[in-house]
Amino acid sequence: MKRGKRYQDSVKLFDKAALYDPEQAVDTCLKTANAKFDETIELSVKLGVDPRHADQQVRGAVVLPNGTGKTIRVLVFAKGEKAKEAQEAGADYVGAEEMVQKIQQENWFDFDVCVATPDMMGVVGRIGRVLGPKGLMPNPKSGTVTMDVAKAISDIKAGKVEYRVDKTSIIHCPIGKKSFGNEKLMENLTVLMDAIIKAKPSAAKGTYLKSVVLSSTMGPGVKVNAQKFV
């Protein structure tokens, strides 16, 4: 793959083969984030699990102490008092069957997270094949199927992120923006890594954290010493 001059210059700033302590990795990642916009800093963790097996799935959600730096648009499927509660809590969109029809008929996806009350899951299930592949399907494990919609919305707006191992056994998750600086990014990184470690399935054998890498939107990956998190 041919890389641009900015990327090539960034690679020269560090040793791509070296394992950096978390603080050094964050610092190095920030130095390589030299695009003209506020780049997102992303964490990629290769896990020693086989996601083909149900008992080795790694999935959960955690509220990052400093948020993600992104404005999250929340759609809530609810009726009656819960719909009113969702609106008062700051949901961007609230509805029931009419929202399902809007998604089906207009291919509308102007939202980032879906929350639903348990009684609405039968309705939401009609568009599961559409929401699922986009990672938008409400799920009890991530706290997006709940009667406490106000708390769910509050957590999401405050910087709640969902992490989930993909079919290649890797978790990809943002930990903030370049503008956050070292300290805030380290706080977010520590909280997220703690959550991933605690989510280790009992069926997972051998090394759990295979590799940990930090990267900015346009920058190269910086390898992190995974043992520093254990």
Offer a concise description of the structure.
By secondary structure, the protein is an alpha/beta fold.
Describe this structure in words.
The structure is a single chain. By secondary structure, the protein is an alpha/beta fold. It folds into two domains: 133 residues, Ribulose 1,5 Bisphosphate Carboxylase/Oxygenase (2-Layer Sandwich); 84 residues, Rossmann fold (3-Layer(aba) Sandwich), CATH 3.40.50. 32% of the residues lie in helices and 21% in strands. It contains eight helices and nine strands. The strands form three sheets. The chain has a four-stranded antiparallel β-sheet, covered by helices on one side. Strand 8 and strand 9 form a beta hairpin. Helix 2 crosses helix 8. The radius of gyration is 19 Å and the shape is globular. It starts with a helix and ends in a 6-residue tail after the last strand.
Question: What fold name goes in the CATH topology slot of the largest domain?
Answer: Ribulose 1,5 Bisphosphate Carboxylase/Oxygenase
- Shape, principal axes of CA atoms: globular
In the CATH classification, which architecture of the largest domain applies?
Answer: 2-Layer Sandwich
**Global Rg:** 19 Å
CATH superfamily of the largest domain: Ribosomal protein L1/L10, rRNA-binding domain
Q: How many helix segments?
A: 8
Number of β-strand runs: 9
Subunit structure: Part of the 50S ribosomal subunit.
Function: Protein L1 is also a translational repressor protein, it controls the translation of the L11 operon by binding to its mRNA. Binds directly to 23S rRNA. The L1 stalk is quite mobile in the ribosome, and is involved in E site tRNA release.
GO molecular function, one term: structural constituent of ribosome
Keywords: Repressor, Ribonucleoprotein, Ribosomal protein, RNA-binding, rRNA-binding, Translation regulation, tRNA-binding
